Amino acid sequence: MERLYIRGQRKLNGEVVVSGAKNAVVAIIPAAIMAAGVSVIENLPRIADVRSYVTTLNGLGAKCEFIDEQTLRIDATEINDFHADSEDVRKMRASYYLMGALLGRFKQAVVALPGGCNFGSRPINLHLSGLKALGAEISEDYEKGVISLKADKLVGTSIFLDTASVGATINIMLAAVYAEGVTTIENAAKEPHIVDTANFLNMMGARVKGAGTDVIRITGVEKLHSAQYMIIPDQIEAGTYMIAAAVCGGDVKVSNLIPKHMDSLTAKLKEAGCKIEEGDDYIRVVSDGNLNAINVKTMAYPGFPTDLQPQMAVLLCRAKGTSVLIENVWENRFQYVTELRRLGCDITVDGRKAVIIGQPVLNGADVSATDLRAGAAMVIAGLCAMGETRIGNVKYIDRGYERIEYKLRSLGADIERVSEPNA
Ligand code: EPU
Questions:
Q1: What is the pLDDT of residues 89-115, one digit of tens each?
Q2: N or C, fewer C-beta in 10 Å, the chain?
Q3: Domains in the chain, start-ordered, CATH in brackets?
């Protein structure tokens, strides 16, 4: 087992470069198998989900090869297996995109029920009803833990999503690229990774319009060609470092980001008392560590992202006064609170609402990353706490953060990864 050891209360200073977006790359890699040819994906984050995808696609008959650590060549000319149900597939939540990608190109797919972080019920009913509306026959085998999809052909139609689901929007978009006629997705999600996936598909010859608004129109095509594409920067990784700088105090330039994607966070950090400077592709956060209590509600993009909610909770634990944090996206995303309490955080949860009373000081403790973003929150808590914090279950953090300890060390943090074979 690996743990992160953090000796806290150091100010953060310097520059940190944001990696490619996890939630874009996990959609764009499967999208790449929709063309019989060789696509090249650049600005890949070095995270566990990318490695799981590479093994998965190779298992389907594709030939994936890293040109360098951040560039992946995917030759999807000869996909000869439509069963994606390996352990790697089960590990990743986003492997559900293989349903849309395989169904679109081959009109058949058998995909393992998705895994990933557990924070309450994570249904995929909207993905399935959307794919069904395009003409797929779907059966679920809960004993084997797989979903089978098959279609003679896919036909475009109008699909209204009850909830603006990121995954359902992308999955339907993937399959609809190869459907006859026009598909309209209404109440579509608008997150930056949806726009990025649509841009990649369009570079491959798809005809997707409206991504980034709540109505996406896809005109089906018969063929896609391979493409070379650079993934957008990771909005959530960027936000995590911005919050870390705000909480610890210091002067941090978070570079290689798209400032517009950060608007909801930037507004909240200013409200909490940080100074923010925005450039074309960077945001500088200057903080003396003395923060004011503020209220935060998570919402679909462009609202405050749920994936920054646990990290923001840590900021509120250190802000002066009482803050209210409301989680509107996931029904059970406060599980990490028990861990934060070990450091002395005062958080009361009532359903989707957390009331947080800021503390002048947090104390280092042994904690566990209960999921990816909860893990990021533990790291920030450890960075600002007095004494040593040891974080277990680092594998969750590695699912979404490239070399987090290196990046934080470059800002002056005292953090190291320790392998503990007997822990
Ligand atoms: N929902 C349904 N039915 C569905 C799908 C979703 O009711 O078929 C509901 C969910 O229960 C939830 C809401 O819709 O309440 C939003 O879920 P969404 O489908 O948008 O989430 P997702 O696609 O499974 C992606 C990200 C998550 C992020 C959410 C919300 C990926 C791979 N994952 O998940 O990222 O929290 O959107 O923005 O893109 C993370 O990066 O840590 C992470 C969990």
A1: 988 889 999 999 999 999 999 999 876
A2: C
A3: 2-19+233-419 (3.65.10.10), 22-220 (3.65.10.10)
Alpha helices in 76-156 (DSSP H): 87-91, 97-106, 125-133
Helices assigned H by DSSP within 137-184: 166-176
Q: Is residue 26 in contact with ligand 1, taking CB distance under 6 Å?
A: yes
**What stretches in the chain show pLDDT beneath 70?**
115-121, 422-423
Report the distance separating Cα 256 and Cα 338, nearest Å.
34
Q: In this structure, how many other beta carbons lie within 10 angstroms of the beta carbon of residue 277?
A: 11
**Residue of 117, 248, 274, 317 with catalytic role:** 117
Whole-structure pTM value: 0.97
Q: Is 117 considered catalytic here?
A: yes
Sheet holding 296-297, edge to edge: 296-297, 322-326, 353-357, 346-350
Instruction: Give nearest CA residue, ligand 1 atom 39.
Output: 23
- Note the residue count of the chain: 423
Q: Is 253 touching ligand 1 by the criterion CB < 6 Å?
A: no
Q: For residues 275 and 230, is the Cβ–Cβ distance under 8 A?
A: no
CB 181 near ligand 1, within 6 Å: no
For ligand 1, whether the C-beta of 118 sits within 6 Å is no
Written as six digits, the tokens of 195 are: 């726009």
**Residue 136 near residue 63 (C-beta atoms within 8 A):** no
pLDDT tens digits for 133-146? 999 999 988 888 89
- Residue 167, ligand 1, Cβ within 6 A: yes
Q: How far is the CA of 12 from the centre of ligand 1 (A)?
A: 32
Q: Which atom of ligand 1 is nearest to the CA of 124?
A: 8
**Ligand 1 centre from 18 Cα, in Å?**
22
Residue 416 in tokens:
């190291």
